[in-house]
Amino acid sequence: MSKRITTSIVFIIITFLAFGQDKETNIWEGTSCHKTVEMTPYIAPGDDNMAVVVCPGGSYFWHDMETEGHAVGRWLQSHGISAFVLRYRTAYVPAFLFRFRYVFRGNRYPDPQDDLRQAIRYIKSHHEIFHIDSTRIGAMGFSAGGHLVMSAAELFVGNDRPWFVAPIYPVVTMTEACVHKRSRRALLGESRLHNELLKDLLSLERHVPSDCCPVFLVNCKDDPVVDYRNSVLLDSALTAKGVPHIYLQYEEGGHGFGASNTKGSEECRGWKEAFLEWLRHIE
User: Fold this and answer.
1) Which of 234, 233, 144 is closest to 183 using CA atoms?
2) How far is CA 261 from CA 129, 225, 249, in A?
3) Which regions of the chain does DSSP assign to beta strands (E)?
4) Contact criterion met (CB below 8 Å) for 149 and 116
5) Burial class (CB in 10 A: 0-12, 13-18, 19+), 221
6) DSSP-based three-state secondary structure for 133
7) Worst-scoring range by mean pLDDT, 19-23, 35-39, 188-192, 204-208?
8) Confidence at 282, pLDDT banded by 50, 70, 90
């Protein structure tokens, strides 16, 4: 084998390791939090890239890691945006089935929020390795993941706050009639379902700050899972506070289409191009 061929093979291997999608990292490694929370990077070529933390949905009980996670990471990467798919802590299936959190704590608020905050800190502290511009790290979430990223825009302060957030068909309220009850149960835990202060805090339409980061909001009016009025509430709150944002409400598309090229409707799948165009205007 010639030296030139050997050098080419080494280069291909290094490139795959640097820009592949299967190199997971534990965001809590080296901290006092002895947890394993995995994040998968999809690093785009180049230097000083913008980055997006991707939070899949799943009612705060589980994750849709493909359509709302890895597919999103690959799509962003293909457009020169580095993505980090976060498997944040959820209540998980046993808590859904057995309701053991009446007695045991399990995973609940603020665990997912702590994971997203740590993910942002991790990316910033490793920005030179990832070739990331540490001032341009946004967060995109789907369904319950949309609630998670929007809560970051409202509850995080200083350098922990994302550069922008993109809640896609998000859960928003924990108090209004259109609440997604499964997500509320998962996030609060059974023992805190009647904690009015906590439900108020996590009703995102009630706590939009006037200095909120830009928001890209999307949902479909025929969503059979998360009532479309969740996004209407958030849009109204963002408008009232004068927050720069865009709200795209599609007539058809349902729920859970993520970055799929086949799920949902042709109309709603247009959100991806709209997002890329919007992103160019906030740079």
Assistant:
1) 144
2) 32, 20, 19
3) 25-26, 38-42, 49-55, 82-86, 132-142, 165-168, 215-220, 245-250
4) yes
5) middle
6) strand
7) 19-23
8) confident
